[in-house]
What does this fold into?
Amino acid sequence: MKIAIVGPGAMGCLFAAFLSKSKEELWLLDKDKENASRINEIGISVEGVSGAWHAKIKATANAQDIGKADLILIFVKSFHTKQAVEQIKPLLQENTKIMTLQNGIGNTEIIAELAGENRVIGGITSEGATLIETGKIRHAGRGETIIGTLDGKAPVEIRSIRETFNKVGLETRMSRDIKGLAWSKLIINAGINALTAITRLPNGKLTEFEGTKRILRDAVTEATRIAKRKRIKLIYDDPLAKVEAVCEGTSANISSMLQDVLKRKRTEIDFINGVIVRLGQELGIAVPTNKLLVDLVKTIESSYKWSLPAKSSIPKV
Ligand code: PAF
It folds into this structure.
């Protein structure tokens, strides 16, 4: 099997490093030429919960170098999914599968629309990673990966992907309901990501302060109301208890949205709390906390050039 990973962020590098342990041919596709050649040169160094180890990786900025692939993992930010699918079109052959484990809602739909429903493998992962610099990541947390197809069937290709993932140490199982999976992850991200990005706290601190605890609870309750109205079946019974448990289980994690804000980058807010706000309007369900979180994160994103560094003195007015 030939595997290509698109997007050399923290999670893309983590999965590339693990999958490099398999006997499959593996490529990392990066739209940045310099970054790709640097990774080619130095590989990926991992430190953290899986120990300190190094993986040699073939990386390129040119999709033609890869040729036809059997499995493509999309790990770009959700607002770049469309562009990534366009970029990988030369890699597609009849049975190529495209997998997304990205945060948020909407990625499977984008891939299905541009490349065909039968190619899509959706899912979620509870592995956690932080990008330290090019070719260097921290494996911040371990957890299972759950994958499935849009029609709930389990063709031979997906079973062999599960096997490959498990062999290299990425604990993986299958589900027949990837919509339920995506929403189960969405509710976790809706409770944690924006709030950490605004407060600049690691995940675990959110449940230690009355204010953040209450806001997290309200964001999760609103998101759960939407999921219920849409008859989504979540993979846990008590959403609030689950989100609080994820905060504790990933207590030292810098959430992906906080990582973006610290790097002054665009965030995935539109694909997370933004989805709740849009659906709230559509379904006539009030979601004021999610609306506030979206407004604040969007303000942060569009005001990087005015925001003061952490240790600056108070400016004279
Ligand atoms: O986006 C993230 O950072 C992760 O999905 C999660 C679960 C919030 C842990 O940090």
Remarks:
- The domain at 2-176 is CATH 3.40.50.720 (Rossmann fold).
- The longest strand covers residues 120-125.
- The mean pLDDT is 96.
- The CA atoms of residues 46 and 83 lie 28 Å apart.
